[in-house]
Protein 1
Amino acid sequence: MLKLAVLISGGGSNLKALIEATKEPDFPAEVVCVGADTAAPGLAHAAAAQIPSFVVRPADFATRADWGEALAAAIRDHDVDLVVSAGLMRILPAGFVGEFSPRLINTHPALLPLFPGAHAVRDALAAGATETGVTVHIIDEGVDTGPVLRQAVVAVREGEAEDELHERIKQEERPLLIDTVRAIADGTLDLAAVAAAHH
Ligand code: GAR
């Protein structure tokens, strides 16, 4: 059974979907802890499922590196096999990435390498994109630059608002993330091999 840490900043709908998936009898992974950088509303999904959670706030540390070390220490306590950033709206420091990557993945609401960063849905609309989507990728040292594992395309509707489009992206994102985690857990997807091929 693959042990997952999930990192969030917001509502945690991806976390909720992942927790629900792991309750299926044959699902080969379990969420053993949930971490956040703030008092994220999504932590309620962890509490409801009796999954331990922790909040590690960047403002409580002198440097980003110190924050990353504290976050890593909290995860280490849970003997985790894979760290899933699912709506964590922070760039993870190099020390953290060095410790966990390639067993460190992120889900991003755009078709990377298009529209990296914190405003992917807004940026796609502003660019007049007719399609966008979601990418699950390994986190490397860059910002949304790591090897792509899975993508799903979402067509942009005429005059669509950012929140509407983001919600439609999330409807594709949740099953894509679950499928990616399942593939990693059952050995179909070899993160070390993908990372090695990327370098
Ligand atoms: C997701 O769409 C995720 O891809 C995005 O935040 C949302 C979190 O939703 N992440 C980023 O934009 C990271 N750059 P959720 O809290 O409902 O799972």
Protein 2
Amino acid sequence: MAQIINGKEVSATVKREVAEDTARLREEKGLKVGLAVVIVGNNPASRVYVNNKKKACEEVGFQSFEYALDENTTQEQLLDLVDVLNRDDRVNGILVQLPLPKHIDETAVINAISPEKDVDAFHPVNVGRIMIGNYSFLPCTPAGVMRLIESTCTDITGKQCVVIGRSNIVGKPQAMLLLQKNGTVTICHSKTKNLKEICLSADILVVAIGRAKFITGDMVKEGAVVIDVGMNRDENGKLCGDVDFESAEKKASYITPVPGGVGPMTISMLMKNTLTASKQQAGIE
Ligand code: GUN
């Protein structure tokens, strides 16, 4: 039976570290840390995420600046706002909540954010920095996954790591981070053949495919570390991950639950990135 990785607990530790560092910065250097969060339209899930981000800012002692824009905001208006935020010294990090309404080109907006304030690490410059292993911030979800793996004291070096999903936000950067820790990494996706066989080779299995309970216990190697990035609803409307927890926990050595696993980490890593951004902008790191 697997040990459950408590994402809430690890996330609380990260936030505590960020809060202590933020208080020290304020006392010793008179610096304040600020995050701007931009939301366009009325997507209810985005609203919840943005509220959680604001709440986390309060918890760690950041200033938060919220810009809630109308659904009909034009791309030009949004780009103008990004330009203002890029030049605003109170703002160390800029987060434009995705998805954006269909008439706005997300890539154009991401590309307009100053890489130094891009705390999501979505800008091509930051993506490139991750590729060459010389980065300031990591995308929040893969960074949270790494911290959860670290919390199990698993040494990644030489391990078979399988990442299921190839998104720009999770799968691709996740694979790079595991590679940088000397894992032997395989990326699988919806077109992969022999998925079960590959999964069964995984010492570390990270699943981010967006399909409810897709990975079942018979696809998990005995003793594997299983990290579930998914957030879905099952047939009864209950929150569930991409992994069938009940059958997988019988095989894994460590496993994340949904909810309470990767989810809480994403926001605490965003706080950590914002703190890093503020230090870099002040020339401290
Ligand atoms: N929408 C869902 N997840 C995220 C995220 O991590 N960052 C942003 N900007 N939008 C999101």
